[in-house]
Amino acid sequence: MKFEDFSNNNNAPWIIIGLGNPGSKYNNTRHNIGWAILDKINKNHNVSISKNNKDYYFSSISLKNSNTILIYPATYINNSGDIVKKIVKKFNSKKIIVVYDDINLETGRIRIRKNGSAGGHNGMKSIINSIQSEDFMRVRVGISEPKIKSEQISYVLGKFSPEEKILINKSIDRCIKALEIIIEKGIDEAMNLHNSQQ
Questions:
Q1: Which of 31, 45, 121, 194 is catalytic?
Q2: Does residue 4 lie in a domain region?
Q3: Which one of 2, 39, 84, 198 is at 20 to 30 Å from 165 when CA atoms are compared?
């Protein structure tokens, strides 16, 4: 069954997928911004995360009166695609939003898109390859480029500086508001409100 054949009706749940790596050593790293955003949503709603499945963690909440599943793929970022494919099939929904870090955006910026390429992000490459589609929503959170390009891997797996953390905390809150607007009013309104903001 192809991704475009899955349900997009009002009864299908929303699925927000935050990209990140499992394990305490990856907490608060640049590459785990997707997980940090889901953590903040769960904290705001006083919801606990189920870790019964070794391949992904999840929680279920009502976001803007809509049934919403929050998914943490736990097979490491580069292998996120297989989990996303399983989740889409399990819930028969293509109302998915992927949240992830982007070195091509300044730290603190967020960018919302209806679809598009992976843009060099291995986690997104994995998802696109697995579901054979680029036609899904995504919210990118800027982490800026490393000063030395050859150090990109250590950079994205590194932690934010105190100055960056201030910007990131603000962008996490903005990202959550954007996700709520997407669910309640549609992605066009969220793009109009947030894509132009600094």
A1: 31
A2: no
A3: 84
